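User: Predict the complex with nicotinamide-adenine-dinucleotide.
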Amino acid sequence: MRVLVTGGAGYIGSHTVVRLVEDGHEPVVLDSFVNSRPSVIARLEELTGRTIETHSFDLRDVDKTNALLDDGRFDAVIHFAGLKAVGESSQIPLEYYDNNVGSTLVLARAMDRAGVPVLVFSSSATVYGELAPVPYVETHEPLASNNPYGRTKLVQEMLLSDVATAGGPRVALLRYFNPVGAHPSGRIGEDPHGVPNNLMPFIAQVAVGRREQLQVFGNDYPTPDGTPQRDYLHVVDLAEGHVAALEYLSDHPDVVERAWNLGGGHGTSVLEMIAAFESASGRPIPHEVAPRRTGDLAAFWADASRAETELGWRAERSIEQMCADTWRWQSGNPQGYPG
Ligand code: NAD
Ligand code: WQD
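Assistant: Here is the predicted structure with nicotinamide-adenine-dinucleotide placed in the model:
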């Protein structure tokens, strides 16, 4: 399949581009590089041994997006493009709604008019909100989120489902849990701009000496060691989940819209993650306990049985592999991508 990958230069998109090529598909990247670097593309070409067709513009540009979709002969789109920082989304909610919902609206229209039949969408476990029982199941209702970022995901899910039900592109709503890790080559990985918001890139930057110490946001949660538990999954497993969903929708024209959790199905605490990274890297991770971070939940993980039954997908890679691959990436690229 010839697949347009919006946000294909980003963290998850870049790993998915590699996987698509490995599985015999032809990815085409569309990215504005608002949160990634053009030098990613050279790394993707190095890893795949082929030229990666790349278009550099903002998805909200209606004319350019329509022209690309009209002429592109795409069989499907995987839609990663968007802003994703939970804290920032409370400070600049308009930017988040404009970028996330706006780009999805422009893309859905362009796909509809060009007749591109299949869309795989990056959603998030944040749509289960604060009250869903753990493990989270796709059938849980009502969906909710406690932050503007998460609410843009909810709106996008509803928008895409409505369009699909009305005969537009059929859609897979992939609800990711906590993606971490890097390609085992160490050539691509997560490269956040500024201070990392998420645990794993922060730990990696402490290990490599870019930051002095990690703050552990709270150790008085009702969990075995007092720190929150999350369902971390390796980004290469996640990339494989996208290809599985793409192929499933293409093979099942009767499936109009469907949500799948992509997670490992168990929780790992902050302290367990620190210990695993220390062991994988051979470096100490200095850390201190700090106050809880607003909005954090104590513990959640996926019921990922629907993805296993229907897509034949499960997260295979261990916490140790996630740490080892992150460390290979971070130690080989201490300052991230060049440029
Ligand atoms: P990322 O920021 O690394 O990648 C997103 C890419 O989209 C970037 O390369 C950015 O430049 C591009 N982009 C943003 N807005 C754009 C626009 N309007 N037009 C064109 N390009 C644009 O983020 P990621 O971690 O790879 O996440 C990918 C998707 O997965 C996002 O939609 C995110 O919300 C979702 N998601 C991420 C996580 C996570 O923890 N990383 C978890 C759940 C869901
Ligand atoms: C994990 C744990 C922190 C940093 C976020 C989004 C979610 C999804 C994935 C997009 C928590 C603790 C963290 C630090 C810490 N993204 N922590 N010190 O919050 O589970 O999920 O990313 O959809 O929507 O909310 O992930 O990696 O930020 O935090 O102690 O410096 O690590 O408190 O318990 P989170 P995270």
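The chain has a mean pLDDT of 98.
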